[in-house]
Specification:
486 residues; mainly beta; Immunoglobulin-like; five-stranded mixed β-sheet; 39 strands; 40% strand; binds zinc ion
Amino acid sequence: MKMQTAKRILAGVVLVLSFFLLMSFCAYGVIAEEEEPFLKIAGRSLSLKDSVYITYYVDTNGAKEDISMLYYTSSKEAYTVETADSRSECLGTVSIEGKEYAVFRYTKLTAKQMTDTVYARAYIRGNGTDYYSNTDKYSIAMYAYNKRGTEEDALCRAMLAYGGEAQLRFSYRTEDLASAVHHMVTVEGGALEDGFSYGLYVENAMATVRAEAKEGEIFSCWTVNGISVSQDETYSFPVTEAVNLVASFQAAAHEHAYIETVEREATCSQTGQKRYTCACGDSYTEELPLLPHTESVEEGKEATCTEAGWTNKVVCSVCGTILQEGTELPAKGHEIVNHAGQDASCAEAGWKPYESCTRCDYTTYEEIPKLPHAYSGDVCLSCGKEFYSDGLEFSISGDSCVVVGYIGTEGELVLPAVYEGYPLTSVAQEVLQSVHTIFYRGSEGEWSGIEGAASFEGTVYFYAETQPSEAGNYWYHIDGTIYLWG
Ligand SMILES: [Zn+2]
Ligand SMILES: [Zn+2]
Ligand SMILES: [Zn+2]
Ligand SMILES: [Zn+2]
């Protein structure tokens, strides 16, 4: 009924607040705009012409069907189709500056509701997905607040006085009478209780602002006109004037996120290095501990008479470091045995007195060479050996004798014709090849009968007791000394 009265009062003044006011009301931003929404409330106006209603203009990005406007008469945790208190369908479109907007109208405001806040949000369901516009926040009182000092000021005041009376009459939200003094609170870097960055408060009502730090920021303080008013992130204060609260933030201490890189692998002989680098450029290094050595036993060596030895050593097979030194074992020194000397004879060499070691081949042994034979005629007086070269090796087979070897360095050889009663029948080739001169104890005829003699390339002298009549290679000896005939 009261609404009817209001209509009559306002009917006299033909007042149409057109959408020329459009964008001006968007000065106070709204929350819940994560991305550029598909639907966007581009503006709204209040009409006081026939009845009081709010007109919304929605940029629908070309969509025309099934768009509705959701309304909320109190602030919500989330403004969704489920939490909406009411909704209205599109009334048609209107073209403003060549762009088409869908028009919606909220008509449920009665006189007592002038300080009620209306939250509105366009909505469309398509392909099973809910699409929402930004959420708008508005009230008649807000409209009137913005008209202060304009031509409509008096009208608005009268309207608000009327609204306040209605509230008193119906005991409706009398703590926030439309006729009371209101102040706009705006917030930067945070939000009011309902999540919006603006709100109209009756004088001395408590407003609460909450800072909203972005990532990498920490809240520092609330300021008004550059002056700090609170260091609490959530700050409540009585509203005594229009106020713009600005939350100030500091860059939060950067938390380094280091990536590890091994710059040098550790070995058993050198520590390694690992570097930690953050994308910000900060870096530090860490030492990588030495790896353990790889133990390997190096066999020791026993000491000898003359050389020191050592016990087993433990070394690292990778870097060569000696991990456990061997102990030196001193040289033992020779264990000496003394030997008596022996005189040389023409049959055997002798030696001087000498010493030797029982452990090694150390010796001071020194041979005394054989003495020369003392031939008297064909036989040595000392040893009884017949006169022919020492070092000849004989082999007796059947009734003949063969020279099979000669151990001697001289190029001359005295060769017997008969050895121990056996006639010499053969001389081994290597014996013949090792000498250049042979003094044969037989005749030329006997020599030609010896196997292998024909191949001898050196000189052969044949034996003759007396001077032969013809010239040739003949020899004789007196007590072991050779003479040539001729
Ligand atoms: Zn960093
Ligand atoms: Zn090592
Ligand atoms: Zn020794
Ligand atoms: Zn002798």
